[in-house]
Amino acid sequence: MSFARNGSACVLSAALLSGCGLFGDKAARTAEVAEPAQAVQRMENATSRVDTYRCGDLTATLRQFGDGSSLTVDGRSWALRLERAASGVKRVAVDDETTVFWSKGDSARLELAGVSQPECRLAGGEERSFRAVGNEPGWRLDVTANALVLLTDLGNTRVVAPGPLVEEVDGLRHYRAGTPDGEMSVTVAKRLCVDSMSGMPHPAEVEVNWQGETLRGCGGDPAQLLQGDAWLVVEIDGRRVADPQRVTLAFGDDGRVTGISACNRYSGRYALSGEGLHLSELAGTRMACAPALMEEEQRFHAALATVDGFGIAADGGLELQSAEKAVIRARRD
């Protein structure tokens, strides 16, 4: 890292914490009275990248400069620091550890003062047709109509390969595009891929070749594996469902989940993030049915309340998971 970058990082840290050793006791005294907003303003003045997200009715702007970053939500700003995470990029406010911005791909999870906000989605920019991510080292690839865009080194290295050529061969999709530093090639195979760190399933395996290095990871939107025809629940907590037609799950592309829960109809919301699958706002009708159906309905809702992830079984079935254990199994006709 250059001295200039270290200096920038020290200036930010000195204004918000107790500073780098470069500033000595004076930095410690300054930190007691310095406003975080001052450091944020300095960072905004030298911003190298800006991303805007929509989080329900909120607008969140992430600005990145060297090793530092800032977050602005509806007029209020925070300086952020990186925090180690199993997947994605997790940033925590320097002066408030309960304010968190955790991004992966074009979505992010936002907490303000410990309160979870609606899922954030990247807004604006050129429409992409495909995204892939990988780990060790972490990287991200966006495929658009006009370019292949590869990000590595926590987003600090960005390579744009314009005008990709596309061809389909034996069920594989290949992209090739040139840059001043050499050719970039990408191969996409439409088969299930599970992220090596988060455990999140994706609809495609991806291989990127760039400057003699091969990057392997997963691509496509995981939500595509959930969406489509309704799932028929065949098992709840290890017990077979009497009639799968009466216990169903349907994931819409609008973020809603609906279905039948043995007796009543229900609806709610679902969201995917770096941490997994989250169900919320579940509610349903209150019709009375036979005791056996009511008992099955209660078990179904109890299982739904514990869901924190999902997987796709070898036979194509859906597994809704809690602590990496399948609590609901479903299939499609």
From TrEMBL:
Residues 224-326 form the DUF306 domain. PROSITE patterns: PROKAR_LIPOPROTEIN. SUPFAM superfamilies: YdhA-like. Residues 53-114 form the C-type lysozyme inhibitor domain. The keyword Membrane applies. It comes from the Bacteria. Pfam families: META, MliC. Keywords: Lipoprotein, Membrane, Palmitate, Signal. This is Uncharacterized protein. The lineage of its organism: Bacteria, Pseudomonadati, Pseudomonadota, Betaproteobacteria, Rhodocyclales.
